[in-house]
Amino acid sequence: MTSSNPMRHQRAAWAFMGPGVLLVLLAMYIPVVYTIYLSLTDYTGLGTPNFIGLQNYVTMFRDPAFLTSLMNTAIWVVGTLVVPVGMGLLVAYLTFGLKGGSWLRIPFLIPYALSGVAIGVVFNFIFQNGGALSQALTFLGVPGAQTHWLEVAPLNTVVMILASSWQGIGVNALLFVVGLQSIPKEPLEAARIDGASGWRLFTTMVWPMLRPSTTIVVGLSIVNSLKTFDIVETMTQGGPNRVSETLGVTMYTDTFQSDQYGLGSAVAILLTIITVAASVIYLRRQLTIGDASGKGEVAEA
Amino acid sequence: MNARKWLAVAVVTAAAAATLVGCSSTTSGSSSGTLSFAEDKGWNYKPLSAAADKDIDISLKTTSYSSSQDAFQALIKQSLRTPKAPDIFTWHTGSQLEALVQQGLVSDTSSIWKKAIANNWVSPAIEKMYTIKGKQYCVPLEVDYWGMFYNKKDFAKVGITTPPTTWNDLMTDAATLKSNGITPFYSQGGNPWAFVWYMLLMSGTDLKEYNAINAGTAKYTDPEVKTVMDTWLDMIKKGYFSDPGSKTPTTTSFKDNSSAMQAYGTWYPGSLSQVGLKAGSDYGIFPIPAVSDQGGKTPVAVETAPVCVTSHSANKATALKYSQWLMSPAAQSTWSKSQGILPYNPKATAPNATLQAFGKQVTSSSYEAYLRYYEAAPAPVLTSALNNFTGFMENPGDPTKYLQTIQTASAQYWASNK
Question: Which CATH architecture fits A39-290?
Fold first, then answer.
C-alpha cells in the first residue's frame, strides 16, 4: 500500500462492494419494482400484462375478503403483542435472578427451533374437529369438546395466535433477560432502599430501564405479525371461506389460486407499505424518546 | 494496488457472468429417447415409463410437484417460455388449458387425435374436452367418470342389498343408513373437494343450467341454483354428510365406516388400494342417479388428466411420438393395471370386473358426460366457489349470500373474458 489517493480507495472499495450491491439490486430491489409494476396491471400469470392503473387497489379495498384479512392482521399484531411479548416479559422477569432460572427458560425456548409450518401441523392435530384437544375435553368431561376451533371466526385467529405464541414466548423472554442483565444494579438498590418493591419497583424502575429491549422485541413482533403466513396457511389455509386470512395469505391466494397476479401484487405492495410504515413510525418514536436532544432524528450508527 | 484493482474487477465480472449464466443456461437437447416430465399427481409412472422404453424407446425423467397445486401451476406457467420448460407435463382441461393454448404454449395434437379416433382408441366425447377452436391439444393420460363408491359392509349391515338406481332410492338408503347410526355421505370443505355436492346436485337437477353457468351465460343467483342449494341444505340438516371440517383422509373415513358413500372419479380405487380395500369385496361403485328427469339421460361427471407437449420443446418430435403411444391399448392397459383404474381406450383391459362394468354402463347412450366443475369453472370463480361452498357447509343456512359472492367473481371474470 504505497498510494494514498482517496479516489483510488473509493474505486477499490466500490469494486469490492460491487458484487454485493449487484446481488442486492438483483435479488431485492428489481423484484420490488417489478411487483409495483405488476400491481398496476391485469397480469394473470400468462400472456402480456395490460396496464390498468390503480384498478387493482380499488378492487382490493372493495373486496370484503381483503377487509376481513386486514382486520385479522390487526388482531394478529395486537395478539402477538399481548401474548408472546407479555408472556415473554413475565417469564424473563420471574426467572431472572433465580437460581437455575436459565433452566426454567429453556422449555420456552425450544419451540423457537421449529419452523412455522411444523408448528401449524402440530397445532392442527390438536385443534382440528375431534382432535387432541376435543378428545382431552371429552375424557375430562369438560364442556367445549364439540367446539370447531379452526372454523369459527375470530376464534380460529385467536387459536392460531396462541399456537404462534407457544413458539414466540421463549425468544422474547431471552431478549428481555439480556435487557434485564444490562440494567445497572445501583439505581435498583437505591429504589429498594427508598422502599420500592414488587409491582411499584417494576413499573417505575425496571420497565423504563428495559426500554432498549422492549423497543426491539415489540418492533420485531409488529413486523413478524404483519407478515404472518406459514401458520395460517398450514392450519386453516385462510378458511373457511377466507375468514381467517392475513394479508400474507390473501396475497398468496389472490396470486396463485385466483391467478390474479396484479391484485396479489397490489396486496403485496400494501403489506410492504404497512410494514415499513409501522416499523419506521414505531422506531422513530421510540428512538426519539430515548434521544436526549428530542429532535426526533434517528442517530446515525 | 493495480493487481488488487484488477482482482476486484475480475471478481465483479465473474459474479456478473455467473448471474447471467444462471439466468440463461439452456438445457442442451436432452439425449434422444428421454423426455423431461413435470407432473402434479404424485402417481407412480415407473411401469408406464418402462413400457414406453420397451415399445418405442422413450423413457421419462419425472419430476413430481404433487405437494402443492398452486406451486405447480405457477411453475409451469412461468417456465413454459423459458428453456427450462419440461418436454411434457400434466395439466387440466377446460379454462386452464385454454389459457395455455391462447398463449401458444402447448403443441397441437390434432393429427394424433385423428388417428386415435379412427382406431376407436377414444370416444369423440373425450375429444371435445381437448378441442379448442377446432384443434386438439394434449392427450389424455386417463379419463375418469364420477360414480358413488359405497362400502359394502355398511350397506349389508343395514340391509341394503342392491345399490340405488333412482334419486328417491338413494335418499331412502341415506335415511336408512342415518337411522342406523352410519353417516351416509362423505363431504369435505376447502380446496379441492368443496365443489362436489354443488356439482352433483346442480348437474343432476339441471345440467343445462350447470353448463350455462360455467360458460358465463347463466348466473349463480338464478332461482334454479337456489333450489339446488336448498336440496343440499336439507340433506345437511338431515345429517347426511360427514363433518366437512374433518381432516381425516377420505380413504380412512371410508375404511373406518365413518361415511358409507363417497363420490369420486374412477381414479379412486388407486387410493383405496393403499388402505387395503378391494373393489368387489369391500366396495362397489354405482352411477349417481339424476335428481330430476333430464330427457331420460343421467348426467355423469368426467374429468381427465391431460399430458401436454411444450410447444417449443427441443424434443417436440419425440414428445409427440410419446403422446401418440400414450393413447394406445398397450399404454392404457399398462397404466390402468398399475393404477388399478378404468382405461379410456375400449381396446385396453380394465384391471377388475367392478370397474369394467361401471365403465361400460356410464359410457352407454343413457348417460350424458359433462366436465367436472373443477375444470369447468374459470380459476377465479373456482376459488370463490370453493371458499363459499365451504362457508355454506360450515354454517348451513340461507345460501343466497354465498351465491351472490360467487356470482360477483363470475361476473367479473366473464366481463373481461367474453
Answer: Orthogonal Bundle (1.10)
Residues of B in contact with A22 (CB under 8 A): 12, 15-16, 19
Contacts of B11 in chain A (CB under 8 A): 15-16, 18-19
Of the candidate CATH numbers 1.10.357.10, 3.40.190.10, 3.40.50.970, 3.90.640.10, the domain formed by B34-144+303-369 belongs to: 3.40.190.10
| Angle, CA of A21, A22 and A23, to the nearest 5° | 90
The CA-based dihedral angle spanning residues A197, A199, A204, A209, taken in that order and rounded to the nearest 10 degrees: 90
How many interchain CB pairs under 8 A, A with B?
A: 105
CA-to-CA distance for B298 and B204, rounded, in angstroms? 7
Mean local confidence (pLDDT), A116-124 = 92
pLDDT 10s digits, B8-30: 555 555 555 444 444 433 343 44
| B146-301+372-416 CATH | 3.40.190.10
Q: Quote the pTM value.
A: 0.79
Distance CA A12, CA B77 (A): 43
B-chain residues within 8 Å CB-CB of A250? none
Cβ separation of A15 and B5 shorter than 8 Å?
yes
Nearest CA in chain A to B416: A42
